[in-house]
Specification:
single chain; 279 residues; elongated
Length: 279
């Protein structure tokens, strides 16, 4: 008990919200007063009401950096039964890519940018700076733990924290809408004067798509407006000669999905951009 509590207090002092886990690496259940969330839940669970229960309730939402709560009499029974310490990654501004087996680790080594890694019983945790929505089974043996989730604390690991990339964010996006945002290539009127393509090399169009993806990925606020303006710029520069294909559009939609835009929002933004340009 004392060792786990000391670890929790150390993490809390560093700004990492923590909670105890019982046997089986799962949180302690809600108390009778909070059973089935009748109390309304913790404020950060985005549910109605504001539960003031002092017990270790509501799973990940119980995580705290307050040493008075961690050492309170209400939490003492949980620490006596605790088998591990967990933390709320998003509460510390982090995302954990949980790789559950050697095959998943090999996939990450080939696909994801290097970052801090922590060994687990069967695989590794890859930890990135930045929060995103959580998702299970995004790939075989791969889970994303960030918002509304908890991860077991297994040590500080090795390596330098890398920023959360668009590639990691895209893992939590359902692939079907992103891969096929529109059934056909964009049909737009030809340019006046013959409609010849003004892109002298394929690299010109590729550079434009890459810049658009980067602009969306780097948006820190007003994401929907940024997506619309980016779609508008792409269509303005590349939309009238017939060079845009499904693959180009899919890349733009995927970048927008990774920032939290729904397929419907993306389709609306694309349609509105076309309307504004009278395409």
């Amino acid at each position: 008990m004392k060792e786990l509590l000391n670890t929790a207090l150390e993490l809390a002092g560093a700004g990492v919200p923590v909670l105890p886990l019982r046997k089986g690496k799962v949180p302690f259940g809600n108390c009778r007063a909070c059973a089935r969330n009748v109390c309304g839940g913790r404020p950060n669970m985005k549910s109605a009401g504001a539960c003031q229960c002092p017990a270790v309730c509501h799973a990940w939402a119980a995580a705290t950096t307050d040493p008075r709560v961690l050492t309170s009499p209400a939490w003492a029974p949980a620490w006596r039964q605790a088998a591990a310490v967990a933390y709320h990654p998003a509460g510390a501004g982090l995302t954990v890519v949980d790789l559950d087996d050697p095959a998943a680790v090999a996939w990450a080594q080939e696909t994801l940018s290097a970052t801090r890694t922590v060994p687990t019983t069967r695989g590794e945790h890859w930890i990135y700076q930045g929060a995103m929505r959580s998702a299970n089974a995004v790939k075989p043996g791969v889970d994303i733990k960030s918002r509304m989730a908890y991860a077991r604390w297994l040590g500080h690991g090795t390596g330098t924290l890398a920023p959360l990339s668009a590639v990691v964010r895209a893992l939590a996006v359902k692939e079907a809408p992103a891969a096929r945002p529109m059934p056909h290539a964009v049909g737009v009127p030809a340019l006046a004067g013959g409609g010849g393509c003004r892109h002298r090399t394929p690299a010109y169009l590729e550079r434009g798509i890459c810049m658009a993806e980067q602009r969306i990925a780097e948006a820190r606020s007003a994401v929907h407006a940024t997506v619309y303006r980016t779609f508008l710029a792409v269509l303005s520069a590349h939309g009238r000669c017939g060079c845009l294909t499904d693959a180009h559009i899919a890349r733009l939609f995927t970048a927008a999905h990774a920032k939290g835009e729904s397929p419907r929002h993306c389709a609306d933004a694309w349609a509105n951009a076309r309307t504004a340009l009278r395409m």
